[in-house]
Amino acid sequence: MLLVLSLTAGCSQAPNNxxxxxxxxxxxxxxxxxxxxxxxxxxxxxxxxxxxxQLATSIPEVENAHCVxxxxxxxxxxxxxxxxxxAKVGTVxxxxxxxxxxxxxxxxxxxxxxxxxxxxxxxxRDNVRAGRPMTGFAEQMADIVGRIMPxxxxxxxxxxxxxxxxxxxxxxxxxL
Length: 176
Hints:
Distance between the termini: 88 Å
Order of helices and strands: HHEEHEHH
Number of helices: 5
Number of strands: 3
Shape: elongated
Strand order of the largest sheet: 1-2-3
Strand content: 5-15%
């Protein structure tokens, strides 16, 4: 019996011959490094606004551009020649976005070709440059960005199913 056990134990061990221990096949992790450029902090908002306006107006078909920097976000309104059809306006707007993408301050800028928003941006920019206090500046910028950014149905979060309405007493009460 001892002989059988010793033979079984001896045969079950594989010779090591100085080789590295076998790796765990379940540990197949891949390490990656972040290569996307990080958004730069905007310290001189007027210089950044001027720079992004120049980039936008360097695109053919753009007559002028107006940029407002709020915090670390830039909104660029472009004024395009009036005789362009809608498809060409989209192409010009895309070209401006491509030009801004190459700039470290413009990579996350918001671009609009809406004439009303461009006029509002121009008014805000002129008031800021004139040193006038901007009451409601944040609200105006939030309204402008809100008009530009689409509301996607997939971004809307439903409340949890087990969450009660705000006023549980009103649910099902026909007297209210």
